[in-house]
Amino acid sequence: MPPLNGNPEFGRFKNDARLSAEQKQLVLTWIENGCPQGDAADLPPAPKFVADLRMPEPDAVIHVREESFEVPATGVVEYQYFQVDPKFTEDKFVIAAEAREITNSHWSQ
């Protein structure tokens, strides 16, 4: 829930995403009760991910790194910085970009 910059002292704002006192208490009660899942039948359907890129055939595919980066199931992972050299020799105008894991891709650099 993004913060709303409008100050409620100065009126009501359209699309105000703040929680009411009752909603805040409901969340606190849920936490105090151990965050129970609730009825699985009430869950929304799981998202369906596309198997391929969502944009048209790209002009360039830039791989961040060749080796995989394993994320442990528990613990803290320090923030990672991955440097990428697209090997462009001139300025480029980007109209679309898609970031995703692609393994066994038929696209080459």
Rg result: 22 Å
Please give the alpha-carbon distance between the first and last residues: 38 Å
Order of helices and strands: H
Report helical residue fraction: 10-25%
Show unreliable segments. Answer: 104-109
In terms of structural class, how would the helical and strand content be classed? little secondary structure
Strand content: under 5%
State the helix count. Answer: 1
Average pLDDT, all residues: 81
Give the strand tally. 0
Biggest pleated-sheet summary: none
Shape: extended
Describe the protein in words:
It is built from one helix and no strands. The chain has one helix spanning 21-32. The radius of gyration is 22 Å and the shape is extended. It starts with 20 loop residues before the first helix and ends in a 77-residue tail after the last helix.
